[in-house]
Amino acid sequence: MENQVSHGSRSTPSIHQRQEAAGGGLLDSVKKAAFVIGSALFFLVAFRNSVTWHLQRFWGASGDFWQTQWTRMRVLFDGNEAALFFIGTMIVPTVSFWVFNAFLMVVDSTGRPSFIARYRIQQEKNNPVDPVRLRQALRTVIFNQVFLSGPLVVLTYMVMSWRGSPCAHELPTFHWVLAELAICGLLEEILFYYSHRLFHHPAIYKHIHKIHHEWTAPIGVVSLYSHPVEHVLSNMLPALIGPVLLGSHLATTTLWFTIALLVTTVSHCGYHLPLLPSPEFHDFHHLKFNQCYGVLGVLDRLHGTDDKFRKTKAYERHTLLLSLTPLTESIPDEPKKTQ
């Protein structure tokens, strides 16, 4: 009996050990959040400065280039802020989404250009994509955008107009835009992670979230392929909550919505392309279902829902690709054991 008790005490973690593990997970989450968001903001600053310099040089503009363009836009719409808001928060992000996905669907359907197809993560899947399943996904995505996203954007405008002026004449400073984007990213991580885990509850999954997981090897357009309830609560609400709570300017909201749509497209695209964020994390979620629920991976690290992922080759490949060699070649999977 004494040996059994001592053996049990060695195998069961103590309260102190569990607290240390939780503290370590929290610290890892904070460091991961700082790294991911900091890297994204650094890239955005560099991109914005480069674009601004080239545009000002091309047009010979003086003064604040972006403020000048915004003033012209307001004059063009002659005070119709509702139309301006709808174009900025619905049309611009949606067009960006479909332009990017049109290119990806060509690659998915034809395998051309072969240079891109080399970077497919699950190489045996969607090669080529099933056209019947693709058409079904397209119909669902278009329905979600037209009949759910559109009305929600209108409702968002009403709420934000009640609180302030989302189309104010003066643009926010770029430093404030960066701060708001960081806050929006963290809020999205929190709401998406917990709503996503909720939709994986057995009592809910088969009725709602199972639709999205019909694609165990996702493609870009599948990012919005979901049940209407999920689209509202898990796709739209996490992205909307930041601008609404912060009372963001339309310029910030447009930028945030566009970034959010492009990032979720990359996460689902099935290709680990050079210089783009790694989609390995969410691709693994579609493959295994019960890992990697978040966007940034911050809360997955905190709650340990990436523990199996971190033991895989996919985790080793979960990095920014800076060469032209596909990571499936430089970090291949372990050979399957033969019986």
UniProtKB/TrEMBL annotation:
GO BP terms in the entry: lipid biosynthetic process
An example Gene Ontology molecular-function term: oxidoreductase activity
Keyword Transmembrane helix carried by entry: yes
TM regions (residue ranges): 33-51, 82-107, 141-162, 174-194
Subcellular location(s) of the protein: Membrane
InterPro entries listed in its UniProt record: Fatty_acid_hydroxylase, Sterol_Desaturase_Related
Domain Fatty acid hydroxylase: 182-305
Any one of the GO CC terms: membrane
Location, primary (coarse class): membrane
Keywords: Membrane, Transmembrane, Transmembrane helix
Domain of life: Eukaryota
Protein's UniProt name: Fatty acid hydroxylase domain-containing protein 2
Organism field: Chanos chanos (Milkfish)
Lineage: Eukaryota, Metazoa, Chordata, Craniata, Vertebrata
